Amino acid sequence: MNRRDFFLACTATAVLPMAAQASTELKDYTPGLIQDALDRGETVFVDYAADWCSTCARQERIIGQLRGENPAYNSAMTFVRVDWDDYKSHDVTTSRNIPRRSTLIVLKGGQELGRIVAGTSQADIKDLMDKGL
Hints:
It comes from Ascidiaceihabitans donghaensis. By secondary structure, the protein is an alpha/beta fold. It is 50% helix and 22% strand.
């Protein structure tokens, strides 16, 4: 193998995992993001979280693991993370009666399909995600 082929192989090996990871990331909420996705007919998984919240971190690890194990989640839903510190008093939170950070909800159309508040059970989170399929 010559140097050029070796370099291309190394680059492809480094870039492909990053591309796969990018499709499984949570989108950071900006005003209108969730409603725009719902208006397009998408199912939206919303994670109300704070960077300092250990429960939120546990939930996000489980969500990432489940999404990695079942790619159907990634094609069936848009995943949005709402920063609790920035949006706890915003309409995106108050209109849905979100009681606290570490709340997970699944939305489709004008309906809430399910909700978990401060739960970290992998089975419960999987059940919630399955409602979006």
